[in-house]
Amino acid sequence: MRVSRSQAAENRETVINVASRLFRERGFDGIGLKDLMKGAGLTQGAFYKQFESKDDLAAQASRRAMESATQRWSVATAAKHEDPLEAVIAFYLSMDHRGEKMDGCPIVALGSDAARQGTDVKASFETGIKEHLEILGRFIAETNGEETEGKAMAILSTMVGAVLLSRVVNDLDLAQAFLDAATDQVREAARA
């Protein structure tokens, strides 16, 4: 059965969205094309009409995951617009975020996998990371009147590392301690 162009475009977006979530949950190599397409409600044969390769999909899904993460920061700051940095800290360094394997931060979920991928996947992450740094730089400027790229890098590194460490331990008290320690450090760095 022939699919219309608009349906094909919609199917492509569905596959990218599903892959974005499933890659975060299972890693780039943790899920095959058959299961990815099944998750999108499509056949494996439809994949090759939409994408050049799994690497092509990985790059596009990575871009979508980073866009989703940036959007989640925007939602968090809209709820607490008087202190956007505190809003991001509260959202990002939380046990709720720690538990979000499919919708959480793609840097945490896929960072080490992305480092082993091709240039297109890395470019998707790099673009998203630069956007995160730009947002944090604006928040720092709003907090203490200065804009420091290095400070934004340190804050993002601390937050990503804390969530990663909190996810790799079974002890929930230790996981919370990582998040709490990072929260204190990020607040101190932002004020300094």
TrEMBL record:
Q: Which domain of life, per UniProt?
A: Bacteria
Which GO terms of the molecular function aspect are on file?
Answer: DNA binding
> Which InterPro entries is this protein grouped with?
Homeodomain-like_sf (IPR009057), HTH_TetR (IPR001647), Tet_transcr_reg_TetR-rel_C_sf (IPR036271)
Q: Tell whether Ligase is among the UniProt keywords.
A: no
Task: Name the species this protein comes from.
Answer: Mesorhizobium amorphae CCNWGS0123
| Signal sequence region | none
Q: What PANTHER family does the record tag this protein with?
A: TRANSCRIPTIONAL REGULATORY PROTEIN (PTHR47506:SF7)
Protein's name in the database: Transcriptional regulator
The keyword Hydrolase belongs to this UniProt entry's keyword annotation: no
According to the UniProt record, which residues make up the DNA-binding region?
A: 32-51
